[in-house]
Amino acid sequence: MDAIDLPSPIERPRLSDTIYGLLLEEIMAGRFSAGDRLPTENQLAQRFSVSRPVVREALQRLQSDGVVMSRQGSGTYVQRSPSQRVAELTSQHTLHEVLQVMELRMALEELAARLAARHRTDEQMLAIELARKALGDVFGQGAAAKEADFAFHRAIAVGSGNPLLVAALDQLAEPVIGAMNVTLSLTREASQQRRVRVLDEHDRVVRAIRVGDADSAAIAMRYHLDQARNRLLDRNLDQ
Fold first, then answer.
1. Would you say the pTM of this structure is higher than 0.85?
2. SS3 breakdown of the chain: % helix, strand, coil, rounded to 5?
């Protein structure tokens, strides 16, 4: 008798993920602004008909994302408020994933920039500089910009002289480019001041690698990625 293929079970989101998404959606929509205190755990549990541990887990995720902060004996407050545009660029449940990608990039690309400053060849330096120029040429052009941004960061990984860093970045290409699409879209729609600052952040990395200053290259890359994370979370930063 032939075996019967049963349908795979549908994965259901955890309750805490749902509460996280609902609260994040309200913050992005402006119902709670930076500095506002959120309802208590008890109030949120009653409102959403869930247990306090579920609410607590959702709040802990928001805190780890840098969206809210807990004050001992006072409650939970909104620390930074992403724009509603973030909700349109990424679903309510994937902002956390975008932030996780950025955290991983900080570890990989800070190291790549440091090593590139030490080991890059003249040919690799030229490739990094050409990649930066290409990014500037298409910076406001959507799909082309995210591909150019990835090519720039990959050129630095190649310049590190460590093929494992290149392989790691290639393996992560899809989520990295997806996160770049979100941050670049926000920058493209923001002020000229923000666009200038973002390109200047790239230039700082290039200059440090060119002169062989490993510490400055690592710091510049860290600063660039940290600022990208801040711009994602704070609707008022460099508008």
1. no
2. 70, 5, 30
